[in-house]
Fold this sequence. Notes:
The complex is a heterodimer of chains A (about 250) and B (about 375).
Chain A: H1 23-37, E1 44-48, H2 54-57, E2 64-67, H3 73-83, E3 88-94, H4 95-101, H5 103-112, E4 117-122, E5 125-126, E6 132-133, H6 157-164, E7 168-173, H7 177-189, E8 194-199, H8 203-210, H9 215-224, E9 226-228, H10 236-239, E10 241-245
Parallel strand pairs in A: 1-2, 1-3, 3-4, 4-8, 7-8, 9-10
Antiparallel strand pairs in A: 5-6, 7-10
Helix pairs in contact in A: 1-7, 4-5, 5-6
Chain B: E1 3-6, E2 13-18, H1 19-30, E3 32-37, H2 44-57, E4 60-63, H3 67-78, E5 83-88, H4 90-105, E6 110-116, H5 133-138, E7 147-149, H6 154-171, E8 174-180, H7 181-184, E9 187-192, E10 196-199, E11 230-232, H8 247-262, H9 265-268, E12 271-274, E13 281-285, H10 287-302, E14 307-312, E15 314-316, H11 320-326, E16 332-337, H12 342-350, E17 355-359, H13 368-378
Amino acid sequence: MKDYMEWIRTSVFPTNFCPGCGHGIILKAIAHAMSQLDIDRKKTVFVSGIGCSGWISSPYIKADTLHVTHGRAIAYATGVKLANPELTVIVIGGDGDIASIGGNHLIHAARRNIDLTVIMADNQNYGMTGGQFSPTTPAGAKTTTSPEGFRERPFDMVKLVKSAGAQYVARYTVAHFPQMVNALKKAIKTNGFAFLHFLSTCPTHFGRRNITSDPYEFIQYLRKNSISVSNATEKDYTTKIIIGEF
Amino acid sequence: MPTRKIKPYLPPGRYFMQGDEAVAEGAIAAGCRFYAGYPITPASEVILRIERRLREVGGVYFQGEDEIASIAACIGASWTGTKAMTATSGPGFDLMIENLGYAIMTETPLVLVDVQRAGPSTGQAARPSQGDFHQARYASHGDYEIIVLSPWSVQEMFEMGVKAFNLAEKFRTPVIILTDEAVGHLREPLDIPEEVEIFDREHDPSAPPFGMDPENPAPMPLFGDGADLLITGSTHTEWGLRRTRDPETQKKLLTHLMGKIRHHLDEIVEIDEKYMKDAEIALVAYGISARSALEATRRLREKGIKAGFLRLKTIWPFYDELIRNMLKGVAKIFVPEMNIGHLNKELKRVLNIPVISITRIDSTVLTPREIVEKVEEEA
């Protein structure tokens, strides 16, 4: 096993994530998974879009990185993978990127079962543009564009992508580091479409208005409010974060 | 040397072919091995032909969920070193513009065929138009240059299929083949040559991935080189590092993106002329309208009117100086086109002689007779 820091582009440090942002934990989990799998760094391409999540791989991951237009990362990644199947191709996007503007690309990539790993770093709102609601914002949650509570319903992304035909689907939060690393390894090894829903923390916007602006408390909240899919009752599906492999 | 001569996939000889098919054959001859597109009239015949050819030559055909995904996949493929193409028509072109801008910003070679139909919006799907003249140039937001070619025959659909790839590879830019339903669906003889000249991009894994030279394109590294590439649509340094607030980098980057094309006009731009030696008036046209314009020029000559003929094979970049020189001595020009007068507007900007627009906006190809009549009226 190699040093996971080989996968981090430390030359561009410090990162520009907000204090307490969970995206740095996802970055580290990816680096751990890649080094544990002993994948050829020179034959790996990370594709990301626009938003806070786009920065996880570009510029912070040390490999080939493609930072593209908002929502289109999966479509670009499809072209890369089809043109050169020897490359390991991993997509990172946020809830805006993957579930909203790029939703069509997501379900079609899952339907095709193309050999990509898609990581959705979900901070449950548009962090970079000032905390507007997104398709994964929980019903009733306060955001800058839903100050009286979000009136719509969120997508269950795991169900959506699973039913679209994905080969491997898992959900964890940034409070579940070893599980994230494990799921990443399984997803990348999956010969087909793999989708990872990683719930991240956004103390700056979402947390401050709904949970807490304290990063430590936010992580504790995620841990306490998560329940494994194997133990979850029907009631848990409306009140808890269901984690595990689906 | 990046230039080499190769035998086209089709054996040399005379074929009877449709324009859309010929552009697919040109692309295959140029080394296109990745096509991504979405079905649309009147460009669907490109898909039918290229899907078959790519299967035969071991390339990839990808049908995207929409035009946005299709051009995105082409850009991804291009960074693996695979020559990539997409084809569409107005409504699909509209959707591609977002990522066309990305390809310009990231200096990604690719070829986009726009088989124009009558618009705006859904318009008339199976009727020709030249209404995308300025859209092809100014589609994306921001300042940039782009190369747009205009074929007028099935033969040129093939030839420009090759040329578009060569220019895309050389100048690291998207190249648009701006044709229309009339040429796309036209069937006529096509001569496949013994060999075609191919230009492959300069590949350098160790050089900076992006150019900053105000006049010349940069070599291009590829995915898998081990260069830890940073490729972004944001303003970037030559190493791909984002500089989203620095005025100097923005200026330097734009200067490069425009300069690498503007400083090579002689290499890029082709303008054909006929009967210009003693011409007193001239017809200036492109694409399908130029066929009618050439016939009109001949008829005007028969009537004793000293008419000349200029045809823009390259529409963009617009070579003001060359056009001015080629039209020296001409007192008046006529500009037949199937739109409200797009080329007309550019020529008015460039020339200080009377420029008279002859247009049709009823999705019908201009006839030589109506051009002759209009010229006689005004001459």
